[in-house]
Write a structure and sequence with these properties.
Blueprint lengths: L1 E2 L23 E3 L2 E11 L2 E8 L4 E3 L4 E5 L4 E3 L15 E5 L8 E6 L12 E10 L4 E6 L5 E6 L6 E6 L3 E3 L1 E4 L3 E13 L3 E4 L3 E7 L2
């Protein structure tokens, strides 16, 4: 079991056409640099996908299992700042903000969107639902290990992550029990030429310690 030592330098720092889902199989992505929420804007519409940066392949969210391997397990720190993860010493599985070559390095990427399309280049990523055996949280940590919580399904949803055209964000994705999670996401922004625009809802599947 991995343990987070605090305070310390943060151990957790948070192409092609999309491949459609097969009727019988999904691709398992369990390590390397992957934008679990890849964002494009084409022909006046958002395209949400999973971008495997290691191999230059994009997938429809429904085609992929995003895997948190057993090696991502940590003990919840004995620090009140981490109370959103559960009781001290409890187990959690974390896809880390700082890259670990053995684990999935989960990003949110909008590099495919050119500056000047959206007002102030601003984009909003709304996590609108999480189903699974326990709670999901997404948070960043600073150089002293202090967390900033972006998403906490245990504290009510939707929660919003702000990003920008051309932007790229890594954070910690923490799951409080092993099992399968379904995470529903919507992206929106104000197109300078036409006004407010929102994506269709996309569902991402995470397999945790399975």
């Amino acid at each position: 079991m991995r343990r987070i030592a605090l305070p310390a330098v943060a151990l957790l720092a948070l192409s092609s056409l999309a491949v459609p889902a097969s009727a019988t199989t999904r691709v398992n992505l369990d390590q390397g640099h992957v934008d679990v929420i890849g964002i494009a804007f084409e022909n006046g519409a958002f395209d949400l996908h999973v971008h495997d940066e290691e191999h230059g392949v994009e997938y429809a969210p429904s085609a992929v299992n995003l895997v948190a391997k057993p090696g991502s397990e940590i003990a919840v720190p004995d620090d009140p700042q981490y109370s959103f993860l559960g009781t001290p010493g409890a187990r959690a599985w974390v896809l880390p903000q700082v890259q670990d070559p053995e684990l999935l390095w989960a990003g949110i990427g909008a590099e495919e969107i050119e500056p000047g399309v959206f007002k102030d280049d601003a984009l909003k990523v709304d996590v609108i639902g999480v189903t699974g055996p326990a709670d999901l949280s997404v948070f960043t940590t600073d150089a002293f290990g202090a967390p900033t919580v972006l998403v906490d399904s245990g504290n009510g949803l939707p929660d919003r992550i702000n990003t920008s055209a051309g932007g790229h964000l890594h954070a910690n994705w923490a799951f409080e029990a092993a099992g399968t999670y379904k995470v529903t996401v919507k992206v929106s922004g104000t197109v300078l030429a036409t006004g407010n625009k929102a994506s269709a809802i996309a569902t991402y599947t995470f397999k945790v310690a399975l």
